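Sequence, please.
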């Protein structure tokens, strides 16, 4: 009966696809104090990581879960492809053909392809299947002997595949499943993705504590491929691999419709990760933006991540008792969004991760909102130009990518 209540106890706003107001996760770390937040109705898909391992950054709204089929003439709650494409002014209908976005996650999602099919059919996107050559799934060694199933990471996988579909429906999708969530295995999966023909971007919606590129950087150093990583969901505190010199670190925003020229407004999400790496070299392009970090600063760019203004995702694994259409947030949303924008742009062969810093005018600058209170204001507070939670801003077309 509890599961039945979760599946069918949905309000009118949920059935209409209107995100309900629930703040993201609280959290604090050194040099920052998180603002007090109301009680939440969210859950993290993955447990906190231990040293040498990463945790996925998906956050599910536990108050909005819909059955496998929504009622007639209704759409799933949360933002779908048309909303995301509108918010970021993207050429999704015409760009991306012939390019592959790779998703790297840990463990196996045995229903990944089937769930992806439900999402794409719901929103009228072209089918992306193994049979038609659009979708492929491999282990970290490139084979088809997959790791053991994990329900939390399966939710992450569904989220990632759906976001690539929403932003770049013409792209092919490669899912690489690491044996475990250790940096060594996830890194091996990134290397497998990078050597796959056609891959132009690799999204990593996971993170652990700040670490050194001397230990793990070789996994993420792939010139000619855009490698993105989630900045984290707990406010200030550097997270690896987002703190790597070799990736584009992706922060998070709260995205709302508005009666302005753009049609949307964004503020920094209170949970968006930001920080200064203790180990890794700063990006040269960041030098003129006053990050205040002696070494690598994160984030670089951002996209929607607040579960309160989250995205529609379909997952059938029934993890934690939730199954069907759900609303997700976390910087697990923003990383595959940005990887897919790089794929739409089609420039990755000739640029590096400094490129947004030299094309910041092609981004929506996010100037309000905060993820806490830091000793250096811009590490936690949005402002004109660069700031920790949102980086340089969010996509306004593909000019910065």
């Amino acid at each position: 009966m509890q599961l039945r209540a979760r599946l069918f106890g949905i309000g009118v706003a949920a059935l209409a696809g209107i995100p309900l107001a629930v703040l993201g996760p609280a959290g604090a770390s050194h040099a920052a104090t998180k603002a007090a937040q109301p009680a939440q109705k969210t859950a993290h898909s993955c447990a906190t990581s231990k040293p040498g391992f990463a945790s996925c950054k998906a956050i599910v709204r536990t108050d909005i879960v819909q059955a496998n089929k929504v009622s007639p003439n209704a759409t799933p709650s949360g933002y779908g492809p048309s909303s995301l494409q509108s918010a970021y002014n993207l050429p999704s209908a015409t760009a991306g053909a012939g390019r592959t976005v790779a998703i790297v996650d840990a463990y196996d999602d045995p229903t990944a392809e089937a769930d992806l099919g439900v999402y794409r059919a719901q929103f009228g996107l072209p089918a992306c299947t193994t049979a038609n050559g659009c979708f492929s799934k491999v282990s970290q060694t490139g084979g088809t002997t997959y790791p053991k199933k994990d329900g939390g990471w399966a939710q992450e996988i569904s989220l990632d595949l759906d976001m690539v579909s929403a932003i770049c429906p013409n792209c092919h999708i490669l899912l690489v499943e690491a044996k475990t969530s250790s940096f060594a295995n996830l890194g091996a999966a990134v290397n497998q993705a990078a050597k796959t023909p056609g891959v132009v971007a690799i999204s990593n919606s996971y993170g652990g504590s700040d670490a050194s590129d001397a230990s793990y950087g070789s996994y993420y150093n792939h010139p000619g491929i855009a490698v993105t990583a989630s900045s984290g969901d707990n406010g200030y505190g550097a997270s690896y691999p987002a703190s790597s010199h070799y990736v584009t670190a992706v922060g998070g925003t709260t995205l709302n419709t508005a009666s302005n020229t753009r049609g949307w407004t964004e503020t920094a999400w209170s949970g968006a990760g930001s920080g200064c790496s203790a180990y890794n070299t700063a990006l040269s392009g960041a030098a003129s933006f006053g990050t205040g970090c002696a070494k690598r600063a994160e984030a670089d760019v951002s996209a929607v991540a607040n579960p309160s203004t989250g995205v529609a995702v379909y997952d059938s694994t029934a993890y934690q008792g939730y199954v069907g259409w759900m609303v997700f947030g976390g910087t697990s949303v923003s990383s595959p969004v940005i990887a897919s924008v790089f794929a739409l742009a089609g420039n990755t062969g000739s640029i590096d991760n400094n490129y947004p810093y030299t094309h910041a005018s092609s981004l929506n600058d996010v100037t309000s909102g905060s993820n806490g209170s830091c000793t250096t204001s811009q590490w936690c507070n949005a402002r004109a130009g660069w700031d920790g939670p949102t980086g340089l801003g969010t996509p306004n077309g593909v000019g910065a990518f």
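Residues 151-167 form the longest helix (17 residues).
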